[in-house]
Amino acid sequence: MNFSIETIESKDFPAVRGIIADSYKNDEPNTDGDEVDMIDRLRSYDQYNSDFEVVAKDHDHKVLGHSLMVPVKLRSQKRSLKIASIVEISVLQDYQNQGIGHALVKELETRAQLAGYPAVAAIDNTDFFYENNYVASENFNIYSTLPVDLGANLIKPLFDGSLFNRSGKIYYPEEFFGVRSSRV
């Protein structure tokens, strides 16, 4: 299947809302029913970067898939490190298992690496991210502040040694949780 990966544009927002709703309608283990609204909230996050939100389109410019990555903090008692986290990935049901999701993730990883982020985190209860060379974050003594299974808290270093001596907890922005930022 031929498709392109592009930075999202505002004209893509309605299609993306539909894709997210379609992807999570079957109550898979990775859904809490807030995914569509979460994306809208994260676009208001003061560190939102439209270059970290991508869509897959076919040759007719139909949006087939979507993914969003945001900066998050990896904090310990001694230090803080900004990493990226893929917080949403969706592909229309009829186009799943055709490489679109993997291409979306690879594109976001490349953009994170070019922006100087040392690692990309994800939360997932399936094998999808493991297939993309993510590992359990606990291998680096990195844990989530979210109530998720240890095996669902995943990370991928983008540079050799980028997570050396970087243990701690991953903190997500308040917009992730359904709270709009009051910061100006």
Compact overview of the structure:
This protein is an alpha+beta fold. It has helices at 13-23, 35-42, 100-114, 128-131, and strands spanning 4-7, 53-57, 63-75, 80-91, 119-123, 135-136, 142-144, 153-157, 168-171. Strands 1, 2, 3, 4, 5, 6, 7, 8 and 9 form a nine-stranded mixed β-sheet that branches.
Compute the number of helices.
Answer: 4
Shape designation: globular
Largest sheet: 9 strands, mixed
| Strand segment count | 9
Q: Helix amount, in percent?
A: 10-25%
What's the SSE pattern? EHHEEEHEHEEEE
Unreliable segments (pLDDT under 50, ≥5 consecutive)?
180-184
**CA-CA gap between termini:** 44 Å
What is Rg?
Answer: 16 Å
How does the helix and strand content classify structurally? alpha+beta
Arithmetic mean of pLDDT: 89
How big a fraction of the residues is strand? Answer: 25-35%
Describe the structure.
With 184 residues, the chain is α+β, with helices and mostly antiparallel strands. Helices cover 21% and strands 29% of the residues. It is built from 4 helices and 9 strands. It has helices at residues 13-23, 35-42, 100-114, 128-131; strands at 4-7, 53-57, 63-75, 80-91, 119-123, 135-136, 142-144, 153-157, 168-171. Strands 1, 2, 3, 4, 5, 6, 7, 8 and 9 form a 9-stranded mixed β-sheet that branches. The radius of gyration is 16 Å and the shape is globular. The chain starts with a strand and ends in a 13-residue tail after the last strand. 32% of the residues are buried.
